[in-house]
Amino acid sequence: MAAACLLELPDELIIKILDYLDMQCLVRCVACTCQRLNQLSNSENIWKKLSVLYWLDTERTHSSDSWKENFFAWHKKWGKYMGCYVKVKSAWNRIEKALEERSPGTRTSLRGPVEQSELDTIETMMGCPLPLELACSYLIHNGQDVVPGKGCLLGNLEVYDHHSMEVAVPLAFNVKNVLPKIGILALSWCPYTNYGQVVCVNEKPGLPIGCVYYLTQVRRQKFAGYFVVASSYVEWLEKLATRLEDPELIVDSSKITRFYHEPTCVAVTRDVKVTVATSFVPCLSHIWKNNKMRTLFAYQISMTMDENVPPVGSCKLLSRHWEITDSSGQYHEVNGEAVIGLYPVMKPGAKFSYCSWTPLDSDGGFMEGHFTFVNLKTGENFDVICPRFHFKCPEISLSSSDVDDEQYGSEEDIDDEDDEY
Question: Looking at the Swiss-Prot or TrEMBL record, what is one Pfam family this protein matches (predicted)?
Answer without folding.
Answer: DUF525
